[in-house]
Amino acid sequence: MSLDRVIIDELVLNLNPLQTAGRTSAETRKAVTRFADGYSVCDRCNGVLHDIEKPDICGFVKQLADFLGIDRAATTMGAREGKFAVFHSVAQPGDTVVVDGNAHYTTHVAAQRAGLNVIKTNHSGYPEYEITPESYALTLDQCKTETGKPAAIALLTHVDGNYGNLTDAAAIAKVCHDAGVPIVLNTAYSSGRMPINARELGIDFIVCSGHKSFAACGPIGIIGANGEWADRLFRLSPTHQNKNIELLGCTARGANIVSLIAAFPEVKKRVLRWDEEVAKAQRFTAAMEALSDNPGDIMQIGMRPKHHDLIRLETQLFHEIGENHRKRGYYLSSELGDRGIAGLKPGQTKWFKISTYGFSDTQLDYIINAFTEIAALRF
């Protein structure tokens, strides 16, 4: 079986929203190769992963806590594992969790694994799909009416993976707290890209994705909690008194955590440039919608204006070109590939998602020009 893989980000411009903020630097890749063997960080472990000082995992998780505005942090194997750990630590089987209407499937699976019932909030519907504080208030009331007690916990997707909508986390956290419900913020598409302070937002728990938004190799994530919830989440085993129950003792313990440590200095810098990333996303969206004089030929889906780099477009213009092209729907990815651009699913022309994260202005101009050239095939 061949494991060869084209090094996409070194050879082409990759628009895949799953990967743009997870691109690793040369320094990070070098660090990974030094810790590629199994439990490679455990040479000087005295029984607690997050107390290891060489490499300095102990100091690193404290830096993570400061960076995210939480009292205590730890690494996990990903955001979905973090969600399950939070649900399992707070709720009992049969309890109910309220989640936003744009929540990722892993939110539902994590809740189901913990034996919880899930109630979704409404969103505003097509084309914006906005999640509002009012939708949480209504759904929390619905939960209490239907079950006879408050939800055990609520989860908010800070930025969803379908539309790239940035929610008002502080306002929604207040609604949850007013209802006596703790809240976990899923920041898989936000922390590591943009500044986040969970304490200032009023967030009780946070989960993050290292391989989506912290420029690290995966799988790896981050979990954290504030106040009394930190003691609950990071409680210790009564039989193995230095092992965290929800972390199953230890989590990321090899090249993945080393990659996160190596990437972190640049991540701390790049979140301060978030306004530049938002401006690029807005410029790209405007340029794409301007490719046709006919409204709706290309249209951004999700809240306006864009406040995140993940962009979903309805692209009737490109679909019509495919209807008359010898390669049919596969022409678009092929045309982009010929221009050194990757990340769109082959055969997808009616709509697609892309991310502008991390591209220079020159690269973004090149990508816009590529789509402009392809759009001209219609005429």
At CATH's second level, what is the architecture of the largest domain? 3-Layer(aba) Sandwich
Outline: globular
Q: Estimate what percentage of residues fall within beta strands.
A: 5-15%
Largest sheet: 7 strands, mixed
Which assembly state applies to the chains in this document? single chain
Low-pLDDT runs: none
Question: Which structural category do the helix and sheet elements fall into?
Answer: alpha/beta
Helix content: 25-40%
What is the topology, as strand order, of the major beta sheet?
Answer: 2-8-7-6-5-3-4
* N/C terminus separation: 45 Å
Rg estimate, integer Å? 22 Å
Secondary structure topology:
Layout: H1 8-11, E1 13-14, H2 26-34, H3 57-68, E2 72-76, H4 79-90, E3 96-99, H5 105-113, E4 117-120, H6 133-147, E5 153-157, H7 169-178, E6 183-186, H8 198-201, E7 205-209, H9 210-213, E8 221-225, H10 228-233, H11 255-270, H12 274-289, E9 298-301, E10 310-315, H13 316-323, H14 331-338, E11 341-342, E12 351-355, H15 361-375
Parallel strand pairs: 1-11, 3-4, 3-5, 5-6, 6-7
Antiparallel strand pairs: 2-8, 7-8, 9-10, 10-12
Helix pairs in contact: 2-11, 4-5, 6-7, 12-15
What's a quick, concise take on this entry?
This protein is an alpha/beta fold. The protein has 15 helices and twelve strands.
Structural summary, described in words:
The mean pLDDT is 95. The protein folds into two domains: 8-20 and 272-378, Alpha-Beta Complex (Aspartate Aminotransferase, domain 1); 22-271, Type I PLP-dependent aspartate aminotransferase-like (Major domain) (Aspartate Aminotransferase, domain 2, 3-Layer(aba) Sandwich), CATH 3.40.640. The chain has helices spanning 8-11, 26-34, 57-68, 79-90, 105-113, 133-147, 169-178, 198-201, 210-213, 228-233, 255-270, 274-289, 316-323, 331-338, 361-375; strands at residues 13-14, 72-76, 96-99, 117-120, 153-157, 183-186, 205-209, 221-225, 298-301, 310-315, 341-342, 351-355. The strands form three sheets. A seven-stranded mixed beta sheet has the order 2-8-7-6-5-3-4, with helices on both faces. The longest helix is centred in the last third of the chain and has 16 residues, at 255-270. It is of the alpha/beta class and 379 residues long. Strand 5 (153-157), helix 7 and strand 6 form a beta-alpha-beta unit. It starts with 7 loop residues before the first helix and ends with a helix. It contains 15 helices and twelve strands.
